[in-house]
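quick one
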Amino acid sequence: MPLPTEGEFRLRQADLADMPAVYRVCLRTGDAGKDATAREDDPDALGHMFIGPYLVLEPRFAFVLDGPNGVAGYVMGVLDTPDFYARMERDWLSSLRRRIPDPGADESRWTGSDWVRSRIHRPAYPFPQALHAFPSHGHIDFLAEARGQGWGKRGFRHLMDALAAAGSPGMHLDVHPENARAIAFYEKLGFAPVISEELPAGSLTMARRF
Ligand SMILES: CC(C)(COP(=O)(O)OP(=O)(O)OC[C@H]1O[C@@H](n2cnc3c(N)ncnc32)[C@H](O)[C@@H]1OP(=O)(O)O)[C@@H](O)C(=O)NCCC(=O)NCCS
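structure w/ coenzyme A:
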């Protein structure tokens, strides 16, 4: 599958050397699409939970967007969500837990990155029946310099094509309910909300078949 190039930007397969750059993008887009730097006391916490395991455990479906200032975004996904969650638990989070302190489950005591640290120690791993027709899932985050030029669409289509070519019948994703821009973007790509009481409150799950 050819990787798109246009103007100063180019989508390419990610590799492990991209780790610091993708962690940076994750932090700078981590507050419902806005910069989360001021909120987090650990600049790596978001990356540890939301992007590192994708790059390391599912490199086939990990892509970065190179721009004039280096990595300007990423599109990453997994083929089989329950299989990925099992590997994430065994091969990623279990070792992180040995060095990242558990802030406990009492939200009223959390400060800074405690909410992510708590997720690292108590991940939700949601995959209810309502998502079984959409076993893949993915993430996309671009810095402001890469947005609004069609790259989100090109990048996400590339990911969907790669997942479909590998045999996936459909995918889901989670989006912050206040991230209206991303919700509009996913709707344009054919995603629709999934309503299920078994899905975590506080985030919106959207899905589409291939
Ligand atoms: C969401 C995001 C990936 C979209 O990527 P993008 O490159 O800006 O989007 P594109 O330029 O490819 O736009 C694709 C389509 O979505 C539409 N779209 C994009 N932003 C939109 C907005 N704010 N309102 C309505 N439609 C929007 C575009 O109009 C376009 O539609 P068209 O094909 O009919 O012209 C990007 O803005 C981003 O990374 N945002 C910050 C991080 C984030 O929120 N990630 C999602 C977390 S779940």
